[in-house]
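(Protein data)
===
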Amino acid sequence: MSQEPSPILDAIVRVDRLPATGRSLKVAPDEAARAELAEVLKLNAVESFHATLSVAPLRGGIRALGRLTARIVQPSVVTFEPVTQDIDEPIDRVFLPEAAHHKPTPGSEVFVDIDDDDFPDHIDGPEVDLSALLIETLALAIDPYPRLPGESLESLGLSGTAEETGPFAGLSKLKKPTDPGA
């Protein structure tokens, strides 16, 4: 009998026990959880992580509205030196139960408004684990190509316009005539 791994962040909300006025949820993981989060996201470190959410009932589900702030450290794509990034992201997500009458019948047309806001996430059961939402928000805010200020390939003495290298570079030199009269 295997146990499910425990979530990295503790952000579970019971929809059936949520007051009509909603409730506040603050998530500030300890050092061990931040280290596990850094490992999952392939970062050097997650130095700080704070999320404040207002969770309110909405049409049988919930709406989570708030803000996530974090400070992360990851390697530079140029020199692999540590680069620190401060993250400050708004959160606004709706979770609704999937109703049977909303499922399209086979062969029916489905209207999708591309300009509409995000579609709501579907929930099964009385609980919503918002930890995946928080980790996703952090992951999407991370700079995919971090660099220190002023850092570039040119600053290392490398340039993208250098002579061609690789297994066929020598062959291309053989093809070109070296004698101008040839």
